[in-house]
Design brief:
Distance between the termini: 29 Å
Oligomer: single chain
CATH class: Alpha Beta
CATH architecture: Roll
CATH topology: Thiol Ester Dehydrase, Chain A
Largest sheet: 6 strands, antiparallel
């Protein structure tokens, strides 16, 4: 079954052609295999992501962005499950409504490490709002930060 020109256009707008949003690509985030309830993203440390080159640690803004990306992906996948089977235009409309309302990040220790893994799970999904819980760990499994995100879904 081939897609109409409108469906191809919408799939590009939704990012379904394999590209990620520019900011996600800029950070260099990779998405790891995950189950249906948990999301996992990875980020390798780079010199341009540190707060202080004399004492390299991941910048707090990068940590916050990872939490936001991870929570947003978890919510988007949750929404996709709910709207499966709807026309592509309706799916695009509903997915475009997913956005961050509130993001709380607790920084527990400096972001030192070589590879960082952020995970997210859905705490609750309602008709208009979803809440996620996120964690960021380094390659030694040290907990760097935790977060809670609230996202629109309706």
């Amino acid at each position: 079954m081939s897609m109409s020109e409108e469906e191809v256009r919408l799939s590009k707008e939704m990012g379904l052609e394999g590209k990620f949003p520019p900011f996600v690509e800029l950070l260099g985030v990779t998405f790891e295999p995950f189950d249906s309830d948990n999301i996992c993203v990875k980020l390798a440390m780079r010199d341009d992501l540190v707060v202080n080159p004399a004492d390299p640690a991941l910048h707090g803004g990068v940590i916050s962005a990872l939490m936001d990306i991870t929570g947003g992906v978890a919510v988007s996948l949750s929404v996709l499950k709910q709207i499966e089977g709807l026309p592509l235009q309706e799916q695009a409309r509903k997915l475009n409504r997913v956005s961050t309302i509130d993001l709380r990040v607790d920084y527990l220790r400096p972001g030192k490490g070589k590879v960082f893994t952020a995970t997210s799970s859905i705490l609750r999904t309602g008709k208009k709002v979803a809440v996620t819980r996120m964690e960021l760990r380094n390659e030694e499994q040290l907990l760097i930060a935790v977060g809670t995100g609230t996202f629109t879904v309706g």
